[in-house]
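Predict both folds.
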Amino acid sequence: MNAKRIETNKVYEITVGKNTTTVRVINIERRVNGQLVFDCLNTKTNKRLTVADPKRFLKEIKTAKTVKAERAKSGRADGLLSGLDAAHKVLRESQRPMRVKEIAEIALQNGYCKLNGATPEFTISAAMQREIKNAGNESRFVKAQRGLFAAR
């Protein structure tokens, strides 16, 4: 990977011997001879390490936050939101926990999204539960009670 493309506070996959691991770049220093040195934190063991060779960096690992930020920037070509983004917008506007069927109805009525399936509420419910499971505390949704979701 090109040393100029490596940024602080981003997560990268690097080689350590024959193995690979993920690290978060904490600091980038330029030495007297002009060489860049990367101060990193291993995300699995929380140990610090210094990487002097940028060729050890294989690729950037997208975290949930960066994926959300990219999604928010790009948007959709037709100007509509995804079902999940529309559900989040509805929950933020209502400022109360709601059932998924009600969320889907409001999102479709307000024209936030276009869900063509036979059961849009099940599609949105599955997507919200998947985000809660995968993103954990970084999720935009939280289960308030059984069958009720709220915006974080």
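Second protein follows, with its predicted structure tokens after the sequence.
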Amino acid sequence: MYLSQAIKRSEQTNANGVATIFGDRRYTWTQSHARIALLAGALRSLGVAANDGVAIMAMNSDRYYEFFYAVVWAGGVFVPINTRLALPEVDFWLSDSGSKILFVDDQYLPFWRKLAGRFPDLTHCRYLGDGDLPDGLLSYEKLITEADAIADTERGYEDLAGLFYTGGTTGRSKGVMLSHRNIGMNAFNVIPALGFKRDMRWLHAAPMFHIADGAATFGVSM
């Protein structure tokens, strides 16, 4: 079991079906598959190797969805950052995870500006939003269009897939290491509970940084 199998399977069985909708953007499973392979290639070109952390601090979007799958496609580990954190907590999560790349949208650019240069492992920050491109950052779409697609690394089973941090209500947050099997089985469990079917659509109202929404994020593709 490896998480990116879901994207390949959806493309094989429902190539022209709708994969994601966000505002005016709408992608089929074939298009989504291609974009994920390109983003994975971009991550690899930025130095992401097996078990390297790639962090994201952003609101829900189709790009957040692509991010999850592209990171594991490239062999990395996704690190979703809670958007409700204070600056010192974000500082700790980025430092503790050793993330090499951070994706931010418009709302969380101020965090990046205050934290830039503080982490020796964090070599790149990329802009996930749709506004004017901030100085010093490369846009998400440019990252994809200039990349070469790569073959799926097919890391799976007990390989690390995601690092989800606890809320830190009784002490400092702790990174919970979840494997492909952990996340995949969680997704399989919610499919019958939520009644997922081939032609249904899922509205991501819950924050995508949270593992509870993650069950649906990965379940809706399977």
